[in-house]
Every structure is written in structure tokens, then in C-alpha cells.
């Protein structure tokens, strides 16, 4: 899929979090979901060794739970991820739960994540493009870099020139 970064922020709906969807919604193959998980810590996730470990855990848990990671951006205190279920055995909620658990264990800090997460299902190609654009440009909006291409803690399979590691490879 050859997505290109465009300014689609006007395509993103209201950001207030709705009630959690039914469990089957997180198991629908090829349904694209945008997830944000927040840390209780501040300014820690972008430490180079911590970010590398987080990417490795996200990828390992994605393979285990049959999830495809399309894009991510690690911010100092939260992570944005665009994912989809690979086949009928995949489960985004399990992937999230085990990613948070295994990463907290690796850092020896079981209480590091906020309890829940924010998510939204993308319903169209325009929404997917807008979501990936939002994810990649998050560090620019926060004033952490001038161009999304400069941020070393983000990656997208649809955008050449992102610095981050591909979590889908072993």
C-alpha cells in the first residue's frame, strides 16, 4: 500500500473517547485501529534503550497475537500505534495487554502504564491516511522536532524516510 503523507487532520473526528467497542471489533481481520497508550512516567519512553526495547516488545507481541503494526510514534510519555489484525486468530486487545505487561516487566516497573487506552477504528482510506499523518506529526506538534522525518522514534510502512525500527521484522 503506497500511502503518502498529506494534511488530513480535518478528516479526524472529535477526539473525545467513546465507550469501548465490543470485543469482536478488536478481532476483525484487516480493520485498521489507531491506539494510544499512556505512561505514568514523563520523559522516559524516548530514552534510546527504552524506546528500542518498546519497539521489540510491540513487534514480538504483534507476531504472537497476529497483529500487523503499520505505523507508530513513541513520545516521551505515550505511544501512538496504527495496527490491524492479520487473520481470525488475531486480537488487538490481547496484543495491547501483553505489550504493556511484557514491557513493564522488562523495565521492572509493573505500574508504569495508565490503566486503559484510547482507540479509534479507521473506516476509510482517508481516515487511515489522516491517522498515520497524525501519528507521524505528533512530535512536530509537541515542538520536539521541526519535521516528522527528523524524529527517530517513529516509523511507518507507508512512508519512506522514517527513522524508527520496523517492529514487524524479527
Describe the structure.
- Helix 1 (48-64) packs antiparallel against helix 2 (92-106).
- The protein has one domain: Alpha-Beta Plaits (2-Layer Sandwich), CATH 3.30.70.1290.
- The radius of gyration is 15 Å and the shape is globular.
- The longest helix is centred in the first third of the chain and has 17 residues, at 48-64.
- The relative contact order is 0.24.
- It is α+β, with helices and mostly antiparallel strands and 170 residues long.
- The chain has helices at residues 48-64, 92-106, 125-141; strands at 32-38, 67-74, 78-85, 118-121, 154-156.
Topology, please?
Blueprint (H helix, E strand, L loop, with lengths): L31 E7 L9 H17 L2 E8 L3 E8 L6 H15 L11 E4 L3 H17 L12 E3 L14
Antiparallel strand pairs: 1-3, 1-4, 2-3, 2-5
List keywords for this structure.
170 residues, alpha+beta, five-stranded antiparallel sheet, 18% strand, disordered N terminus
As a whole number of angstroms, the C-alpha radius of gyration is 15 Å
Q: Portion of residues in helices?
A: 25-40%
* Spatial strand order of the main sheet: 4-1-3-2-5
Q: How is the main sheet built?
A: 5 strands, antiparallel
Overall residue-averaged pLDDT value: 86
Number of separate helices: 3
Pairing-aware structural class of the strands and helices?
alpha+beta
CATH class: Alpha Beta
Distance between the termini: 21 Å
> How many domain units?
1
CATH architecture: 2-Layer Sandwich
CATH superfamily: Transposase IS200-like
Q: Work out the strand percent.
A: 15-25%
| Helix/strand order, N-terminal first | EHEEHEHE
Instruction: Give the total of beta strands.
Output: 5
Gross morphology is: globular
What CATH calls the topology is Alpha-Beta Plaits
Uncertain stretches of 5 or more adjacent residues: 1-15
